[in-house]
Amino acid sequence: MGRLFGTDGVRGVWGSTLTPELLLRLARAIGSYFGRGARVLVGRDTRAGGHVAEQLVVAGLMYEGVKVYLAGITPTPALQLYIRDHGYDGGVMITASHNPPEFNGIKVLGPDGIEVSREDEKAIEDIFFEARFGGSDWRGLTSAPTSEPGVNDYYVSRIAGSVDSDTIRRLEARVVVDCGNGATSLTTPLIVKAVGARPLTLNCNPDPSFPGRQPEPTPESLEHASSLVAASKAVMGVGHDADGDRAIIIDSGGKAHWGDRSGSLLALYIHEHGLVNAPPRVYTAVSSSVLVEEFLKPAGIEVVWTPVGAVNISYAMKREPGIAGFEDNGGYIHPAHQLVRDGGMKTALFLEMLARERGDSSSLFSRLPQYYAVKRKVPVGSREEAECYVREAEKALAGLRLITIDGVKAIGDGFWVLVRPSGTEPVVRIMVEAREPSKAEELAKNLELDLSQRCAPAERGKASSP
Fold first, then answer.
1. Which among 97, 221, 264, 314 is annotated as catalytic?
2. Is residue 461 predicted with pLDDT exceeding 90?
3. Known catalytic residue: 97?
């Protein structure tokens, strides 16, 4: 049997790998998984075709006897919070997160708001491929879906009530908010206002073509937001992806920082102020920098590495609690709020930290060990070729400290590298960080060349021979 779910839900390109037929069949499989009579909340981001996908998902769920409620356009973490706090049996979020505009997809959420486990994803796939649907006769198709309009308001108010707004208000802060034309256009500016700061908005008009920038927030895509932070003398800026579960922080000097850096600062702040009642432990993906260990271990905070994917961090924290979970892509989990990554909550929490520390955000980031990153994508023709890269990297990097839970991560003196197959694209990701930019570039270049030669298919090697 094939696979539908990747690292984070089901995604595809409209009209190619994502079709109405697939979505309808998948919705029926999800409906069969939840069961007749289950209460399921459905939301979507601003992507093109979201309303089409919504109707297909609703039709499939209702045909399997599910009671459907509609949240409309909403960030993923807002839907997750509402599901958990209002007793739903689960949810479906229609989104492709940070993928380019031509993509869409879905995430399936459990009653605790967390994406369903890998085992439950497999159960849904089995129903899909084996066509083990229940269906309904006409008597079960007499009701319509119910509108649930209060999801975004509830989300904003819960976040505002979870931080020290009085202290933030005294900071009299300006905050640049780049919503990326996504679902946070409806929430993050309101969150910033509600906690006592002044939002300066950029790309906060919902638009399925994402005219302001690509949906993925990176230091490169947030160039305009970074310039606005510096020009407006804002205390910080934030950039979201399309569904709002990521938040990349921009410091007061206009520099955007990857999420493992902002996550490390927040984790130390949480620990020092006792804001989460849990052992001093953080969870982060192997794609995060080793600076996480260098910065947090001296403070007595244990660092646990996980496979890439926020759902892996959520379930690890559910099994053994910690004070924070985060990813280099900007995802941050504040367990006192909910066990999923939440860009709105991260924004408010970072503002609280700034207000209490009475320092500018540039000074905060300057406390971190300095590493320079190089990230490469190497196209591969098959899963076997991708796995070759990992095997050969483990051989090439033998002798260093190796972490092999998701690809292979090797940690040396003043540098680290990660080689892993992507869960969303036909590429191998090679990540390198070193204390010197030239060393990072050299390591990445040499490793990519070495592994490409070791793993090149025979026909490619023949074609390149003189």
1. 97
2. no
3. yes
